[in-house]
């Protein structure tokens, strides 16, 4: 499986914000980053002006059930990707400690559609429509599967499978969010920053150079490193038969799905 023919989307010399994540829903790509949210209604070719008034550092975004959900040091929701009503709220765990959420995906848990977010300290939580909570059907993978020092950085859902990734080359898969399996092979010294599922399978972006910018897997259990359009990537989304990657210094590249 190979994804080629990347096209750079140039937003102009002043567009240098950090882009961290991207998703597709209801005919729109929505990306988030450092105090920024942008929307595209033409499959990533052109982008609306950044949403005004965004002061949060956002790390992840997902779409499901008619709602865009963005997460970071503060978290918010939108029905159209351009209007994000306050308040943006922090995730506070049952002990009263706040956590930064690093990524979010919409998937199926126990037959129900749910937003599942991951973050620092192996955090796994779901959105109940009002707050982020730790539901009983989700289990944090214990050591040694995931060492206690690992922070989760990416999550996606596709073909009935959650894929969660983090530091120290950690990648795990789960059909239900409670039982987790390590892949048979992950290239060493790999950290997924973001992941998506398209008709070609799972695709992740790494913190590496252009030569090792992407990881691909047909099913989440074995991963292959391949080159990408550029290094410094942070997020990837799939929709309308198109992969779009985003990253440092305002980077946006798009590629038709060749799977």
CATH topology: Methylamine Dehydrogenase, Chain H
Query: Which structural class do the helices and strands define?
Result: mainly beta
CATH homologous superfamily annotation? YVTN repeat-like/Quinoprotein amine dehydrogenase
Distance between the termini: 7 Å
CATH class: Mainly Beta
Shape: globular
Report Rg: 17 Å
Examine the secondary-structure arrangement and name the CATH architecture: 7 Propeller
Give the helix level as a range of percent.
under 10%
**Tally of DSSP β-strands:** 23
Count, helices: 0
Spatial order of the strands forming the largest sheet: 1-23-22-21
**Major beta-sheet overview:** 4 strands, antiparallel
Listing every helix as H and every strand as E from the N terminus to the C terminus, the arrangement reads: EEEEEEEEEEEEEEEEEEEEEEE
Total domain units: 1
- Spans with pLDDT under 50 lasting ≥5 residues? none
Structure description:
The protein has 259 residues and is mostly beta strands. It contains no helices and 23 strands. The model has no long low-confidence stretch (mean pLDDT 87). A hairpin with a 3-residue loop joins β15 (161-166) and β16 (170-174). The chain has a single domain, classed as YVTN repeat-like/Quinoprotein amine dehydrogenase (Methylamine Dehydrogenase, Chain H). It is globular.
């Amino acid at each position: 499986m190979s994804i080629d023919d990347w096209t750079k989307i140039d937003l102009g010399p002043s567009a240098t914000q950090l882009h961290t994540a991207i998703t597709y829903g209801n005919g729109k790509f929505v990306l988030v980053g450092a105090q920024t949210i942008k929307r595209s209604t033409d499959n990533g070719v052109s982008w609306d002006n950044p949403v005004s008034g965004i002061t949060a550092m956002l790390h992840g975004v997902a779409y499901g059930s008619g709602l865009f959900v963005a997460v970071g040091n503060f978290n918010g929701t939108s029905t159209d990707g351009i209007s994000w009503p306050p308040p943006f709220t922090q995730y506070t765990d049952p002990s009263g400690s706040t956590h930064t959420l690093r990524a979010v995906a919409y998937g199926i848990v126990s037959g129900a559609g749910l937003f599942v977010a991951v973050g620092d300290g192996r955090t796994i939580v779901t959105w109940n429509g009002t707050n982020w909570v730790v539901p009983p059907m989700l289990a944090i993978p214990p050591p040694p599967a995931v060492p206690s020092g690992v922070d989760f950085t990416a999550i996606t859902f596709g073909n009935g499978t959650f894929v969660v990734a983090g530091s120290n080359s950690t990648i795990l898969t789960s059909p239900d969010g409670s039982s987790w399996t390590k892949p048979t092979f992950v290239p060493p010294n790999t950290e997924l920053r973001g992941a998506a599922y398209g008709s070609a399978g799972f695709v992740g972006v790494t913190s590496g150079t252009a030569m090792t910018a992407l990881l691909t897997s047909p099913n989440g259990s074995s991963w292959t490193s391949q080159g990408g359009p550029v290094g410094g990537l942070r997020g990837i989304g799939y929709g309308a038969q198109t992969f779009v990657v985003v990253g440092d210094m305002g980077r946006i590249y798009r590629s038709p799905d060749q799977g």
